[in-house]
Amino acid sequence: MEDGSDSPPKVLVVDDNEQNRALAQAALEGENISVFTATHGEEGVALFEREHPDCILLDVRMPGLDGFGACERIRALPGGPETPIIFLTALRDVDTFDRALRAGGDDFLTKPVRPTELIIRVQGALRLKRLGAELRNHYDVIRRQRDDLMRLQLQKERLTSFVVHDLKNPVNAIDLHAQLLCRDTGLSPDARESATGIRSEARHLMRLITNLLDISKSEEGQLVPTKAPVPWRALVTEVLEAFGAHSHARNVRLRAALSLETVSVDRDLFQRVLENLVENAMRHAPRESVVWIEDRRLPGEIEIRVADGGSGVPPEQRERIFDRFVQIDGSSPLASRSGRGLGLTFCKSAVEAHGGRIWVEDANPGAVFCIRLPDDA
After folding, report:
1. CB 131: neighbour CB atoms within 10 A?
2. Using an 8 Å Cβ cutoff, are 297 and 263 in contact?
3. Is 141 exposed, middle or buried (0-12, 13-18, 19+ CB in 10 A)?
4. Long-range pairs for 234-241 at CB < 8 Å and ≥24 separation?
5. What is the distance between the alpha carbons of residues 319 and 316, in angstroms, rounded to a whole number?
6. Residue 245 has pLDDT above 50, yes or no
7. Which terminus of the chain has a smaller tally of CB atoms within 10 A, N or C?
8. What's the average model confidence in pLDDT over 88-106?
9. Is the predicted pLDDT of residue 178 greater than 60, yes or no?
10. Bridging pattern class, strands 55-59 and 262-265
11. Averaged pLDDT, 47-58
12. How many angstroms from the chain centroid is the CA of residue 163?
């Protein structure tokens, strides 16, 4: 018998009948299997502890400690749960079979046992044990790989957190200095325009930083919005004014058609949702086109739409556009648009944290990013 190791497998035969022990020993040794024999349960348990066999043939009815008791004792010992145990019995009935299984038996042979059947059952049990060991080895390898990946992920998250928090202070300082320059009445128009551009880019960088933080919170289930009635028109106006210089430079007009007075949202989170959507729309809007923010009230919901006249998003890509750093497949004629970072990923996380949903529709031409939120008014 091929066992895949240098030494032959070991089988322990526990039976109070000398003829049965001799029959099993002769059949198994003919298959290059080492055999140890015991005449009763106590001796069988002691041999198991000393020899650590690869399989056990265990008679049911023996004086003193019977097969069921010996099986339970062996299963409680080191190595016992992994060792195949085949019960041998002259009692061919369901109750004995069920009791053997309850005691921890793996297989069941009725006497008189035919040598060929005995060999097949033992070989099968040995193969299963080797397979079980291989699977355990594979599991250990996979578990180590999983632990290494988890450790790497935690280290990456820790590094990201440090980097993000360390970036916030210098970005705030850049924005502050740009504001001071903009207030300087002696500044030339070109310098003032440069300072305004610096401030716009600093605000963009701060959005990237806060997006990253909030996406991490969302993945950990910790992004919980604090909802309150927010003056809707004032919020939209503030967002559009923040992009005024940028839109002028790109020759894109920003417009709003609003009907809602208030919306129940987390003001900070939702302001950044609008900023990300407007920035995304402006990036893809053709020159001399218009980016629109519109709203409407539906039964039990409010809908907010941010539309541009750009290249649009192919239908098959409209789910992926919210994934991190997604790049739309360039094989499509409409495929010049990409998620480009974390802005749209953050929008999806923030909207869903509000109990809403976000999706993309065709603007014909362009794209419309649609948000629906519960109407808590």
Report:
1. 10
2. no
3. exposed
4. 235/263, 235/267, 235/270, 235/271, 235/274, 236/274, 236/293, 238/271, 239/271, 239/274, 239/275, 239/278, 239/293, 240/278, 240/293
5. 7
6. yes
7. C
8. 79
9. yes
10. unpaired
11. 94
12. 24
Does pLDDT of 224 surpass 90? no
Find the helix or strand (DSSP H, E) in which 117 lies.
helix 115-182
- Helix, strand, or coil here: 326? coil
Contact indicator for 61, 82 with CB cutoff of 8 Å: no
pTM: 0.52
Structure tokens at 8: 């032959």
- CA pair distance 261, 257, nearest whole angstrom: 12
Lowest mean pLDDT of 4-8, 12-16, 274-278, name the range: 4-8
Q: Is the pLDDT of residue 336 over 60?
A: no
Strands 55-59 and 34-38: unpaired
Asked whether 10 and 36 are in contact (CB, 8 A), the reply is yes
SS3 375: coil
